[in-house]
Amino acid sequence: MQEAACPVVTYGLDAPAAWTARYRHTEEGNTLLAVHGDGRSLGPFKTPVYGRHNMSNLLSCVVLGDFLGLPREHLAAALREFRGVRRRQEIVGETGDVLIMDDFAHHPTAVRETIRACRERFPDRRLVAVFEPRSNSSRRNVFQDRYAQSFDGAHGVMIPEPPMMEKIPPHERFSSSRLVKDLRVRGLEASYFKSTDLLLQALISTVRPGDLVLIMSNGDFQDLPRRLLKALSREAA
């Protein structure tokens, strides 16, 4: 960084970054973000988004905005009004006190941090993590072992057979059934399904009031989040 031809400012949720932040959730469902650096304190900022990874992203925006000379009140308004992006902890709907969420998470770090964020935001809900290995990397065994360490915050895990496996050489293929076995060794309640339709039927019969169903895939997952919402709404009617 010393050789950079431009100003370099470091940031992170932990020291020794030049700019750091602390955050906590409020009872109103928001997050309060306090930013510190350059001998100053900025905030607290209020934001409806949550999760450690999102706070790191927002911290970078605050630091950049401050560097550009944006007024603090403009930064505060931007963070307060930003609702996140589609398919990032997106609430699809709620029925019968079952909350259904859609997220693009597909690599081990994203899965881990998304589950962690949901546990922080909804500590009183049972979290059912549903993961479809669909991306080019997740359908390969390059992350096979790492995925086993990504679901620790979930109360239950459901994983189907990956789609389009015929496009992956046999010796490179990811194994959903092996992941389920590895998760069970770690003490998690995990289930493997041959198809998304079978997984959906299991969800319909096992979710209960108070659950958060976190559905993760970088594809459409055969529209699983909305199919589940529709089916549960029918049952609740």
Level-1 CATH class name of the largest domain: Alpha Beta
Indicate the overall shape: globular
Mean pLDDT: 93
Helical/strand content category: alpha/beta
Rounded to the nearest angstrom, the radius of gyration is 20 Å
The CATH topology of the largest domain comes to: Protein-Tyrosine Phosphatase, Chain A
Beta-strand content bin:
15-25%
Unreliable stretches, pLDDT < 50, 5 or more residues? none
The CATH level-2 architecture of the largest domain is identified as Alpha-Beta Complex
Kindly report the name of the CATH homologous superfamily of the largest domain. Mur ligase, C-terminal domain
β-strand number: 9
Helix content: 25-40%
Largest sheet: 6 strands, mixed
Number of domains: 2
First and last CA, distance: 60 Å
Helix/strand order: EEEHHEEHEHEHEHEH
Summarize the structure in short.
The chain has 237 residues and is α/β, with parallel strands linked by helices. It has helices at 52-67, 72-81, 108-121, 144-147, 176-185, 196-206, 224-236, and strands at 19-25, 31-37, 40-47, 90-95, 98-103, 126-131, 156-160, 190-193, 211-216.
